[in-house]
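pinned: reference chain
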Amino acid sequence: MPIPMHAPASVPARTLIVLMACAVSALAQEPVLLDGKPVRMIANDKVTLAVRSEGGAMVRLVLNDDPAAVNPLHAELGHFVCVDGFGPVSPEERIAGLPGHGEAHRVQWEILASGRTSAAGGFGTITMSFSATLPLVQEVFRRTIRIVDGENVVYVESELENLLSFDRPINWGEHATIGAPFLELGKTVVEMSAMRAMTRSHESQSETLPHRLASFRPFTWPMAPGLNGESIDVRSTPARVPIVDHTTSLMDPARRLVFVTAFNASRHLLLGYIFRREEYPWTQSWESYPGDNRIARGLEFATQPFDLPRREVIQTNSLLGAPTYRWLPAKSKIGSAFLMFYTRTPDGFQKVDDVVLANGKVTATDATSGVTVVLAASRPL
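pinned: its structure tokens
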């Protein structure tokens, strides 16, 4: 669940075309304005990604040949990182100045390096590396984003460094959020390689919209318990609003690489993430449908099951047999990696049953129809 923010103004089509042209021609060494905020543009021949200079949120991802320029990411929240901290702060932390969801999404991100390298066959890799100093928690967060020519894939590698001389438990969440027009009521469907799951307690949620799910109940993904004892398939976005709900799912422990996707069949558009299960064992699905164009759904893969105050997360220790935090040793670094893909889907592709990264490809399978989506993905995880 995000820290509340104001809904942004829409970007004029002419402005978007100019931004894309800047990005496709070269890496933008100087930021450009998107919704009135500075962003860095990273692009290849397939996709264009906008990354905010402050906070590093990935706020726009578009297919270069899409005349509608449909952005699956929530235009204001986008995909931002919550580190070190994922949730509200304690009264003491608030007095000390620590923001909710950690410092990384609030500070300026410095560009360490940017450029293009060429490989055999003429394919190139566009790389941009960032660093963010977190003074309150005495950590440094670094992130490198890569896009390879001819691919609909964004590769993200991150590193967190502890500047202090003692081991510490840390909270780390990738707060990916989708929004309209890609997110449509009754149409957009979320899938993930999940098994055991839990609804969030109503008391721990800050929003006041009505719930459709029972409070803090275990279930097997995707059939969650409703308020009246019924089973509700939480993959599909509900058609009736207003509603707010929040579930967490334990990713399949039998898999090294796990996935979460969002698919809009009517638009033939698919957004997905693949990540290492050992680094992000939990995926949260935060759903906020107030009944207007501010609708949002989180695909939040993280070290913890819910975005809660640090003390509560650490005291919980584990849920459903899985840890709720990660250790960052003294004067040391830990890392993580994931990839994000965005593509059109072929006719006949109706749902996502599985997503696999292997042999230089991302393959999304619809087991019923037998139709697959196959994307080049040259970098392993």
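why pinned: Confidence is low (pLDDT under 50) at residues 2-18, 20-26. The chain has one domain: 13-352.
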